[in-house]
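Archive transcription. Copying these from loose printouts into the bound notebook so they stop getting lost. Printout 1 of 2:
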Amino acid sequence: MDMTADTTWWWIATGALIAIELGTGTFYLLMLALGTAAAAIAAHLGAGPAGQMLSAALVGGGAVAAWYLVRRGQPAALPTQANPDVNLDIGGQVQVEAWNADGTARVHYRGANWTARYQGQDAPAPGAYVIRAVQGSMLLLDH
């Protein structure tokens, strides 16, 4: 069997997996690409088809399993509307002059007037508040 042809197909598979991952954002495909790259290296080193498949399965499968275990131990991400890594307004401070009867208020923030809603447990009172989430064009406030 022609070793050059084997390595070429493995490198093409690696490139295809990386391209698909870039299009979909599925990080697990990069782990599988590690497996196909390992198979290409095994082919360069003279391994037969069984050795190439075994190296692809061990490296790719091991990388997927390792990534799954790492991700499983991490806490779930906050929803986008309340995630300060996504929305830089989270954690910002505003001053509320008065609350409306329906639990909303108009606040001035970043040069514009916003509608705000209190999401705490106690009764809202005028004063300083922290933005905890942004829901559409409404700021959700708490102390």
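Printout 2 of 2:
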Amino acid sequence: MTKIVLTIGGSDPFAGGGIQTDLRTFSDYHTLGMSVLTSIVTLKEDCLSIHPIDTEIFAAQLETIQNISFAAIKIGLIANPAFIPLIETFLKDHPDTPVVLDPVLAFKEGDLALEKAIVTGIQKNLAPLATVMTPNLIEAQALLNLKNKIATLKDMQVATTRLQTDFNTAVLLKGGSRLAGKFAVDIFATTTGQLSHFTNKKIDSKTINGAGCSLSSAIASGLAENDKLDEVIKNAKDYVYQSIQNGVVVTREFGSVYYDRKFEKVEGTQIISKIGGETWK
């Protein structure tokens, strides 16, 4: 039977991230995707703007799908702190459903108060309900209230452990391009605090728009069929790696991830239990 997966997030008109990528990823995993929209993103004269959906409309969307039996739920860009208690109630009404929390923080510098309110809501209301969180380095810094950047592999280890301990959930901390070196390293902490490391060679490509959204959506789709989180993450990372390699150039400046079922070339993600040696240089 086809599983149903829900995404709660924003719309990306470039179809690289947000709801568009989530639904495409769900389809690639042969699950039926449903969506609740939090915002619409626009880009005009290099100015990114996030336009939240009216709170009553957001609440009505959740009410519309209240009785659906979901195999997994993915939460992305929230856009308005007023949405957080509504999402919290919805998750509590679906207590047996795996939840992937991707704490997207895409706000402009002038929106610091808004970002802080959303971070606080994620910390207090949503993170404790998540099956796994998938922050990048900047998002992890915000969630941990760190003043210094997470800049090294050791910093990542410490941050991952703190996130897991503080929020009592599994964590996948994404190093991505912000971590120096030839390898993209993500660190995974289980609910018991055990750490493992997923690594790929970095890809020199501009077709990376939507990689984070695609990864969290792939994890949600994987959890709809498999409760072994380490296997789900490994498969999701391989999927995203292929999606970057096969991405579509959208403008001269950037491109978006895209998965082609005919595309077979992939360098498999390595899972490493501990750090050491030349691998990380």
